[in-house]
Amino acid sequence: MVKELEIEFRNLLTKEEYDTLIENFRVKEEDFFEQTNYYLDTADFGLKERHSALRIRELESQYQLTLKTPESRGLMETTQILGADQATAIIAGANIPVGPVRDTLKEIGINHEDLQVFGSLKTIRAEKDYKKGLLVFDKNFYGTISDFDLEYEVADYDKGKEIFDKLLKEYQITNQPAENKVARFYHHVYGDKE
Length: 194
Hints:
Elements: E1 3-13, H1 15-24, E2 33-42, H2 46-49, E3 53-58, E4 63-70, E5 75-82, H3 84-91, H4 100-107, E6 115-130, E7 133-142, E8 145-154, H5 157-170, H6 181-190
Antiparallel strand pairs: 1-5, 1-8, 2-3, 2-6, 3-4, 4-5, 6-7, 7-8
């Protein structure tokens, strides 16, 4: 996986809404897994300014370096797999390795040598296939808070939006479109100090 268009819909949930969905979709304890995102940007938030984001995602068995850049509908994800030693080095301040992420950073005018880690967000996640898409149930921990959200990842924007809106209505979930995790992280941890 190098480049992939990401189309997803996201809604914040109360704990009660989250619990109801977990129960109704029969999500079991063994369906959950943990991941941690480490967010990188320049000191002057050059990626954020370009509506882009860069993260290292630590999963149980691997690390993924992913750059998200805006498209007309959705985000283009450029991903490369890292070894544990590479990921640890980048988090400690080393440069992004040669590859598609570094190439795309250059294309959008970001010097990879200017990047630094701004913090991390931990997610407890479960996923279920749903109507030709993927429902993602997340509990997130960042800064001093935690929150819940539901994501629906799809290939077709219009069909996906229709299905997601119906699901929210069916389960009487307050329509509360959520910013992506990196945006929520920045708002909570850095507030207006950008």
